[in-house]
Amino acid sequence: MNDSPRRATVVVIGAGQAGLSAAYHLQHRGFTSALDDPDGTRTFVVLDANRAPGGAWQHRWPSLKVATLNGIFALPRYRQPALDPDEESRIAVPRYFAGFEREYALPVLRPIAVSSVRRVDDDPTGDLIVETNRGRWMARAVINATGTWNNPVHPHYPGQETFLGRQLHTHDYVSLDEFAGQRVAIVGGGISALQQLEEISRVATTFWYTRREPVFIEGHFEPETTGRETIAKVVADVEAGRPTGSVVSYTGLGWTPYAVAARERGALVRRPMFTRIEPHGVREADGSFTTLDAILWATGFKADLEHLTPLQLRNELGGIRMRGTQVASDPRVHLIGFGPSQSTVGANRAGRDAVSALAKHLNGMPAAS
Ligand SMILES: Cc1cc2nc3c(=O)[nH]c(=O)nc-3n(C[C@H](O)[C@H](O)[C@H](O)COP(=O)(O)OP(=O)(O)OC[C@H]3O[C@@H](n4cnc5c(N)ncnc54)[C@H](O)[C@@H]3O)c2cc1C
After folding, report:
1. Could you report the average pLDDT of every consecutive run of 10 residues in the chain (369 residues)?
2. What is each CA distance from 362 to 39, 42, 81, 243, in whole angstroms?
């Protein structure tokens, strides 16, 4: 087997909404496929760990129907067909992504998992080495678009390992049927927690725990104003190098149909976090005991950036200081679908912005040796 590295000017890691948007804009600016044109001067490739198109959407739970979504922003210049609101989003959205990849003949290689990205001899202007489970790529720049799905947040509570019931994370949730007739704790104050609370409370006795009192926004959410203000707050955090919080910590919770349904069913009763987990349940903040069959950790996800560790991008606060989509300490590295661009609309725009900034950066650099 030939194990010499392959070369692309830009390696995009991840083919979700963010990575596909970047790929489209690279192609639009004249970058050619590194697979068809390995000796080209401006080439790109997309490496994706999934077996099939669709990014994280293909792994979402079956009851997350199209109608439950807040709305999926269209990929660049590729109209969404009318989606059946009752179709599972894990089927409908990947089908749409697959159509996009075909339409633009994007050079996506899968399944390829990137295990690390590092500098050659710590040279701040040289190539980056992208190691994968199927060989190595050399690149002038990397656009990282690896999302959050593979990095679920698992908080630790005392006594957790003694619990005799079932513990699972949103990441592994399949359907409400698994909880019929049970007593279930749902931990978390985000959108997924609310959706799963609403679902499970149809068939089980639920207990909803959050660290902070949830903040519901009264009135209509105005994307053009509220959305802009939220993004400005997240941008301020990443530009200062501060770690970012969950989406809901910036926006608050909306009175979505599932939140209203949970309230009407009497399920939207928040309890402060329990203090301890015991074999048959949890010790409440007031010292009383609640018996449980299952604990669902709907505690969210964080950016999946483990493979970038060798680049040492994080500062002493644990954040990564950004300038737009570019990592402030290394202009060859862009993070998209990250911080302010963690939504389908944000991912789209970030793909375009990353390519625009990289095209300028690469114009100022000598061609690869
Ligand atoms: C339950 C849920 C519902 C949501 N609903 C909405 C909504 O209604 N509207 C909205 O705008 N947003 C919604 N979002 C957010 C939205 O899904 C994301 O912001 C967006 O889809 C993320 O796209 P992405 O390209 O950044 O990541 P992903 O879709 O996660 O794609 C990342 C890709 O990178 C690949 N990858 C990861 N690590 C590696 C590696 N080391 N090597 C190679 N490949 C790798 C993965 O295999 C994956 O294909 C929701 C999120 C969740 C969790």
Report:
1. 85 98 98 95 97 97 88 91 92 97 98 97 87 97 97 96 98 95 97 95 98 87 67 93 88 90 97 98 98 97 97 95 96 96 92 97 68
2. 17, 9, 36, 28
Q: Is 17 in the pocket of ligand 1 (CB under 6 A)?
A: yes
pTM: 0.94
Q: Residue with the nearest Cα to atom 38 of ligand 1?
A: 146
CB 66 less than 6 A from any atom of ligand 1:
no
Cis peptide before 310 (omega within 30 of 0): no
Fold for 160-216+253-297, please state it.
Answer: FAD/NAD(P)-binding domain (3.50.50)
What architecture is the 6-150+302-363 domain classified under in CATH? Answer: 3-Layer(bba) Sandwich (3.50)
Distance 19 CA to ligand 1 centre (A): 10
Beta carbon of 23 within 6 Å of any ligand 1 atom: no
Residue type for position 369: S
User: Which residue's CA lies nearest to atom 49 of ligand 1?
Assistant: 55
Residue intervals of the chain classified under CATH 3.50.50.60 are: 6-150+302-363, 160-216+253-297
